[in-house]
Amino acid sequence: MDMEKAVSALNNPIRRQILHWLKDRSNFPPALPEHKDAEGVCVGYIQEKAGLSQSTISAYMNALKQVGFVEAERHGQWTFYYRNEEKIQEFLNAMSDELSIS
Hints:
Order of helices and strands: HHEHHEEH
Distance between the termini: 22 Å
Number of domains: 1
Number of strands: 3
Shape: elongated
Oligomer: single chain
Largest sheet: 3 strands, antiparallel
Number of helices: 5
Radius of gyration: 14 Å
CATH topology: Arc Repressor Mutant, subunit A
CATH class: Mainly Alpha
CATH superfamily: Winged helix-like DNA-binding domain superfamily/Winged helix DNA-binding domain
Helix content: 40-55%
């Protein structure tokens, strides 16, 4: 994992908030019936909750995706995002190792 890119992706309070929101699907409205089997949350719901433009949210989600903190899944015209717990834990372990006193 590129620690500099990971830290940069987290150097924005809204991106950190999005990761927090994605921990629990109930932070968002229920999925539409046609998307009930989709993993994650529709980018439109993330945009609505954050109160930011579609282009800003797309850029934020791309930054989180590039470092592996989220995964994206397409369903028709919709993109759904969910946390990549393994990559988040990998980052936390690496950060702990880097900052711990030896």
